[in-house]
Amino acid sequence: MLLSDALIADILAEFPSFRIRYKRTSWLQRSIHVALLVLTFGGQRSYLTGYYTVLFGTLWVPAAWDTLPDRDRVILLRHERVHLRQRRRMGDLGITIVYLIPFLPIFLAYGRARIEWEAYTETLRATAELYGIDAARALRPMIVKRFVGADYGWMWPFPKTIHRWFDAAIDDIARRDQ
Ligand SMILES: [Zn+2]
């Protein structure tokens, strides 16, 4: 059995309504794509093709999901499972207020940055487990860019903060490894 299939079974046991759907089949997902394109002045143009998004318990995936290697699917699913748990903890309204509404003051979305940081910490943990701690360390530039750039609407445009969070997370993972 593939690791990712086993993980999907676990997620389903925890969240019975969890499902995976293709973004391109959804009118709402296509509309979000257009909204993000406009809100980020064209900076985020890969929402449909390059990003995985959990919304109300469904994981929306790009076509690339089909060819994603098993371990990479696991890493991605572990990140998204954090968002499912956040939704359970905060409720739909709570997570929408913290995540989506701060999208409007687009440059400083601290709530969204904290929510994403919790999930990216899990990305680092999963990467360290499946590919080794050096592979997790190598994610630094990609992750910093996600937070400070247009990908998520410049959600926390202060690289120093993200580098500090990153260092703390890697130290923590390395310590647990020993
Ligand atoms: Zn995320």
> Topology as H/E string?
HEHHEEHHHHH
Sheet having the most strands: 3 strands, mixed
Associated small molecules: zinc ion
- The percentage helix is 55-70%
The whole-angstrom Rg is: 16 Å
Broad shape: globular
Strand order of the largest sheet: 1-3-2
Termini gap: 29 Å
Strand content: 5-15%
Low-confidence stretches: none
Overall structural class, as computed from helix and strand content, comes to: mainly alpha
Overall mean pLDDT score? 88
- The number of distinct structural domains comes to 2
Q: Tell me the quaternary state.
A: single chain
- Number of DSSP strand runs: 3
| Count of DSSP-assigned helices | 8
What's the SSE blueprint?
Blueprint: H1 3-14, E1 19-22, H2 27-39, H3 47-50, E2 53-55, E3 58-61, H4 70-99, H5 110-131, H6 133-137, H7 140-148, H8 159-177
Parallel strand pairs: 1-3
Antiparallel strand pairs: 2-3
Helix pairs in contact: 1-4, 4-5, 5-8, 7-8
The protein binds zinc ion (ZN).
Residues 79, 83, 116, 119 line the site of zinc ion.
Task: Walk me through the structure.
With 178 residues, this protein is mainly alpha-helical. The protein has 2 domains: 1-91, no CATH class; 103-178, no CATH class. 64% of the residues lie in helices and 6% in strands. The chain contains 8 helices and 3 strands, in the order αβααββααααα. The chain has helices at residues 3-14, 27-39, 47-50, 70-99, 110-131, 133-137, 140-148, 159-177; strands spanning 19-22, 53-55, 58-61. It has a 3-stranded mixed β-sheet with strand order 1-3-2, with helices on one face. β2 and β3 (58-61) form a beta hairpin. α1 (3-14) runs parallel beside α4 (70-99) and α4 (70-99) runs antiparallel to α5. It is globular and about 45 Å long. The two termini are 29 Å apart. Bound molecules: zinc ion. Zinc ion binds next to α4 and α5.
